[in-house]
Design brief:
The complex is a heterodimer. By secondary structure, chain A is of the alpha/beta class. In chain A, 35% of the residues lie in helices and 23% in strands. Chain A has two domains: 5-229, P-loop containing nucleotide triphosphate hydrolases (Rossmann fold), CATH 3.40.50; 242-275, no CATH class. Chain B is an all-alpha fold. Classes of the chains: A alpha/beta, B mainly alpha.
Chain lengths: 283, 277
Amino acid sequence: MSSAISVRHLTKDFRIGIRGLKLRAVDDLSLEIPRGQVYGLLGPNGCGKSTTLKIVLGLVSATAGEISILGEPSATSAARRRTGFLPEAPYFHKFLTGRELVRYCAQLSGVASADLDAAVEDALGLAAMNEAAGRPIGTYSKGMLQRIGFAQAVVHDPELVILDEPTAGVDPVGSASIGRMIHAMRDKGKTIVLCSHLLGQVEQVCDRVAIMDRGKLVLEGAVEDVLSRRDRHVMTIEAMTPAARAAAEAALEAHGAKVTSITHPRRSLEDLFRELVTGSRDA
Amino acid sequence: MKDSLRRTLWISRVTFLEAVRQRFFAFLLVLSAAMVLSSVSFRVFDFGHGELKFIADFGFGGMFFFGSVLAVVMTAQLFFSEIDNKTALTLLAKPLSRAEFLLGKFFGAWAVLGVFVLVLAGLQGVVLWAREQELIAAAEQAGKIPATFSIVGLCELVLLQWLRLGVVISIVLAISALARTFLFAVVVGSLAVVAGQLQWIAQDALLRPTDSPVYAFFLWVSTRLIPNLQQFNLADALVLGSSAVEEGALIAVGVSGVAYLAAYLTLGSLIFRRREI
């Protein structure tokens, strides 16, 4: 089976200024994104990840290289019919209601008239936007805009969903909600490509990651593989007394192991925030 | 083909809704309507011409001027706003071609201008009819032949003005597909409308003999590239019957308008296809 996205030797140069100076945004990038996984594309601002996504979607032309989506040449209508996209900080027609927008996008994506109503309600349900779907988009909060953007991206049941900074400007509760949507899509067997700066979230939701810098790929692999330190171990112990600690250290040292640090486990500020505001929605 | 037409229709529908809900459209419509209605009050300044002619000139002048402003500014705004705020990214990532997007924008904007022209022409017709009735009564008492206007001519003029505005929209879309800023599109679009209004001068000059082949070539190219927007201004002839208009001439104006409209839309689509968003 072909990859969800296959990028081979992709290069993109932008011409800037009157003299047409060349700016290389993507430099000989090759990537294979497998199907059915959540794939994180990471990197600092200007590293070329958004340009790469735009080229994949046919919004920007490549200077060199080949790209295919689900085995089809990218930028073809057939490839885009099987792809959903949520751009960074999306802006939609303020006068449309959420439901009208999702319906409009479903129509443009080729959803048959007979399936339209069901597809729209399913997408709104997945994005937890049923209740607010009748309101004009101009009245939505940032988190709701991202969620309705997610709904329009998945309304035609695409096999591949590309999300560019889906949690930018969204609070941790909204961010967690988007994380749940991503997991729900993966559970349905979809491939999700996620471009984000929020490394903590990427770590939580992605199966594989690629890190780009200055247009080049610097690291690629399964999250577990790239983050694990196989030569170190962590134990979490309850009710440890000084005597128990000394005995444990002695026992470990007797077997040639060395205890390098003992600290109290911490929860993340994001976990604490979500715990404190449980149940609240950003509606 | 059927799917393509549907997608174009959906884009134009949303474009139409977006445009009519803007204050700019409502403002220009109210301003133009006020100009048409106020023409009755200003008819004492008819400069010796007939009252109906003054009312018609005043009203059609407003329709022509504000319609042109609306066609240039609104079209550029409708096109650029979607690119600037990334709505176009969302839409063009779907199985929608750039030509369909551009055509959808065109038909949406053209439909708005259709409403604009229809409302103003309706008002103009009511104003002309009301004054015509008063003039007929006065002429009968004085035993003179009353001045009249033609409703059929008014309908023909509405179609011509709508076509003229369609040509303007297609030119502005072609310019917008090339432009990088809203301001550039509006300024160059406005200049194109002015050039279209003055194109007849180049046509006249082309008929006169000249020693310079470069000048003659420049005039020839100008008269082919720029449509003659003056040819659509047949208000006097069609509505007031000041002179006869042959049916063939009307058809020629219509065909010329449709040809320019199609040519500029094709050009706009070709430019937009290569544009990086």
